Amino acid sequence: MTRRVSIFGATGSIGQNTIDLIARDPDAYDVVALTGASNIDQLASDAMRLRADIAVTADETQLDDLRTALEGSGIEAAAGQAALTEVGCRPADWVMSAIVGAAGLAPGICALEQGATLALANKESLVCAGQLILSTAKANDARLLPVDSEHSAVFQALVGEDMDAVERIIITASGGAFRDWPLDKLASATLAEASSHPNWDMGQRITIDSASMFNKALELIETREYFGVRPDQIEVLVHPESMIHAMVGFTDGALMAHVGPPDMRHAIGYALHWPDRRALPVDRLDLAQIGALTFRPPDEVRWPALRLAREVMERGGLSGAVFNAAKETALDGFIAGRIGFQTMAQVVEQVLNDTDPGHIDAPMTLDNVHAVDQMARQAARDVIEHKAG
Ligand code: NDP
User: Fold this and answer.
1) How high is the pLDDT of residue 53?
2) Closest ligand 1 atom number to CA of residue 42
3) Mutual angle of helices 319-335 and 343-354, in 10-degree steps
4) Using an 8 Å Cβ cutoff, are 13 and 264 in contact?
5) Mutate which of 86, 99, 223, 282 to test ligand 1's pocket (most atoms within 8 Å of Cβ)?
6) pTM of the model
7) Candidates 206, 212, 377: which one to mutate for ligand 1, based on the most atoms within 8 Å of Cβ?
8) How far is the centre of ligand 1, averaged over its atoms, from the C-alpha of 203 (Å)?
9) What pLDDT is recorded for position 389?
10) Ligand 1 centroid, distance to 276 Cα (angstroms)
């Protein structure tokens, strides 16, 4: 039986790793849709290699280029947000959600509405609209599988376990590019320095978010949403080697750790083959050679994003959508050279503090999430303007 699969964000780091796994067994999959944004050559060549039904770019100005690149292949080309949402609604058995940012939310919701299994790398969706995603999955009998390495690790450690016996969840963090930098040097960190990760090969945005720990902050909220535990049951542990991805602590004192190489094809492959385990092309760890694994507590002065995430979890409602939108806009500001590395957290904190409680407490519908997202982006742009000016 072939499985119908779609990959949203196919041209990115997670998308390419997903294609690597699927292309190893082409007869097992019938590829429905691949989506991308700016990388038209990659999108078109993967669509032709995997014989997809349709390729979609988020960027409407690139539609002609995509059509030209696909000419003669019989593969449909489309562009823009409406097209992304439309392919989200095309029947598929398994969908990889790997668009970066809140833009991944609407296509993911559509995939759940048509009952697909959604492999969720796009953590921003859960941060912005966790309850909406979970209720949509439930209402449509659709399954949500985590792809973030930490959440895949927790998911695997929980197989066969009773959630009532879970005392705590520990997600690990490498500490990113500036883990060992003197604090007073952080203000002058450059884009190139922030864009280099010591262990993982990922897209630029998540790499910078790892250096600032905004990535881990999103993952704290993602953990709460996905596993339904209280914020005080979730811990972050700095683990520079990135071999243990997460641990689950049980009421009898046992800690179940998931250990594996820093290669996203493990978590993607687990979600692709779940509930089975299949052979995956990832390195096997030689722990004797590694010798030692080290751990340290997170430093909330170095990484204020962690404190902000805890405030968001306490606040609830649509504060996750505000947090994520302000974070994405602050990151744009840092990438554009308008604000410094440490100013990103200041921007997010100010937007959170200034947001009208009426926005946060609005019902969690897709329209309200979108409206709050837009409002927070504008507020963040205003703060950046003020700070940069
Ligand atoms: P990349 O930046 O490498 O790729 C992002 C993908 O989204 C690309 O296909 C890109 O297209 C597309 N894209 C960008 N902007 C838009 C938009 N506005 N609308 C639609 N599509 C868009 O990101 P990653 O693969 O690193 O990350 C993807 C998601 O997975 C993120 O949510 C990230 O947090 C999460 N994740 C990533 C991990 C990793 O190892 N990389 C680990 C765990 C989670 P194009 O390239 O053509 O412009």
Assistant:
1) 98
2) 47
3) 150
4) yes
5) 99
6) 0.97
7) 206
8) 6
9) 75
10) 26
Q: Separation of 100 CA from ligand 1 center, angstroms? A: 4
User: Could you tell me if 262 and 242 are in contact, meaning their C-beta atoms sit under 8 angstroms apart?
Assistant: yes
Would you state the pLDDT for residue 328?
98
Q: Read off the tokens for 260.
A: 């594996």
Which residue numbers in the chain have pLDDT < 50? none
pLDDT of residue 24: 97
**Residue given tokens 């990151």 in the structure block:** 331
Distance set, CA 377 to CA 5, 60, 384 (Å): 33, 22, 10
Measure the CA–CA gap between 256 and 162, rounded to whole angstroms: 13
The predicted structure's pLDDT at residue 15: 98
Ligand 1 environment, Cβ below 6 A = 9-15, 36-39, 58, 98-100, 103, 121-124, 148, 200, 202-203, 205-206, 264
